Amino acid sequence: MRVLITGGGGFLGQKLARALGTTGQLRGQPITQLTLADLAAPAPLTLPFPATNTACNITDPADVQTLMAQPFDVIFHLAAIVSGQAEADFDLGLNVNLFGTLNLLQAARTHANAPVVVYASSIAAHGGEEPAHIVDGVELNPQTSYGTQKVMGELLLNDMTRRGMVDGRGLRLPTVTIRPGRANAAASSFMSSIFRDTLQGETSNCPVAPDYPIYHTAPRTVVANLIHAANLNCADFGTNRCINLPGRSDTVAQMIAAMTDVTGPDAENRITWHPDAAVQTIVKGWRGHCTPTKALALGFAQDASFADTVRWFLADDIAKAP
Amino acid sequence: MRVLITGGGGFLGQKLARALGTTGQLRGQPITQLTLADLAAPAPLTLPFPATNTACNITDPADVQTLMAQPFDVIFHLAAIVSGQAEADFDLGLNVNLFGTLNLLQAARTHANAPVVVYASSIAAHGGEEPAHIVDGVELNPQTSYGTQKVMGELLLNDMTRRGMVDGRGLRLPTVTIRPGRANAAASSFMSSIFRDTLQGETSNCPVAPDYPIYHTAPRTVVANLIHAANLNCADFGTNRCINLPGRSDTVAQMIAAMTDVTGPDAENRITWHPDAAVQTIVKGWRGHCTPTKALALGFAQDASFADTVRWFLADDIAKAP
């Protein structure tokens, strides 16, 4: 079982690699090779199977062909330009999010056996003329270039799966919080930093009102769901391989209250409340509520509480920090 | 008012050009230039304003930039690889239907004023896990590469419109019948040829059963709707610029009966009935019923009867044939 993770240097790619290291297998077969690819080669991890850390520019078809010269059985495609950056630079987002995905799928289709491709799409697929509460089967009307490019990738994945070129499974990730590391250019960055940074003694600004609802999921849950997507039988997905992932809907105020329940009031007192119109324009186009019927029927995991998320963050990302 | 038609050598592009020649104006302004572009330069038409017929390979960005070196006010983007051919050659379909559209929109965004872009999408956008009877707002799950590529173009058009790069209006065309000319590689080709060819004394095969329902529209109606789309105010469209166009639902048997009512039984008797599994696989993935609420509210025209379509075909395409 040869496995590739694109965006392997990102926090999700790193957590996914560690989780695969724990199970040692995928789709019932032992993992014999894990390749982590990113624009800069990711730092090596200690893993119980051979692992390679490779620099690859997915906007360059030749680079991708080199990366995939030896076929993979399972590909987790996480590499992306995030929402804020794709909004600031239309062509960069298009090159990485659409053409990078196309380059990857074009290389994957040359494999003798169609590889399983787990594709990270996003709740940013939703917006615009869609209902306030998302259900499966509504027409996608993304209101960011990031969301648009992700949905274009979904369509390509569906079509290339229908044609037998790949065996795709597309997951629309809720906002993943609490992200470790530093703030990034995602418009959703604050949805982690108001918890992550304040729990570590820093101040952090919340650019939206306390009653803003977030459809969110924890890193642990997302990693489990990425692996679950790879393990499922392709026939279970039906003709639409791209689904809304389970998450929880909480307002910012409810999430802060959960943090305070777990850790006391110090972190909450470090949050400032200065509205940011640019961030609001993007995130108010997203949806805070979703009923992911198909994903739940397929056995994907759903977060039980944001208090768990806070505990997992403290255990996974603070306790283990160097 | 400078106007461009891509796919200008096709039957719709030609009919649209003649219709613009009749009105002489668009968006309340006189047309001062009409450019018809196609892979081979279209034959000149007699028009009451300056017209240019240009060869342009829309898969070549430089060719498209040359075509659009002088800005256009309204662009009708009709050029495409049809369904059967895009199914037979994945890369060709992707190159023309997706990258051709991207090249056009990238050139259009360099215009000082965002041009109106009327984009021909298709009812082939629908299929798969969608309901049997299409309504507005259902998640698009195309079951052909043609439909997939058309929807990817819709998303791009929506996003570039949201960003102010173009002023897009995407129309999902029902099956256009009766098409003049010869059979083509569209899986829907028979939906014209069983009328067009038999009305001209030839035999023609129907590869589906008489009870197969078709959501169809006449060339006259489509041309009127393309022009209507260009004339509408952008604000009327909302955040989703891509809509299901009105059509009529009739079974093949009902359409044949309408033809017989208008012309007598000779044509009907020239139809043969040999099932074709390849065609059926494609067209049975389409939808035969659609309620296009938004388009009707926006004032788009709807066909009243297939008998009208037969009369219009005889008047427009047989009477005027050389």
TrEMBL record, chains A, B:
It holds the Pfam family Epimerase. One of its GO terms (molecular function) is oxidoreductase activity. The keyword NADP applies. CDD domains: Gne_like_SDR_e. Residues 3-206 form the NAD-dependent epimerase/dehydratase domain. Keywords: Carbohydrate metabolism, NADP. This is Nucleoside-diphosphate-sugar epimerase. It comes from Pseudorhodobacter antarcticus.
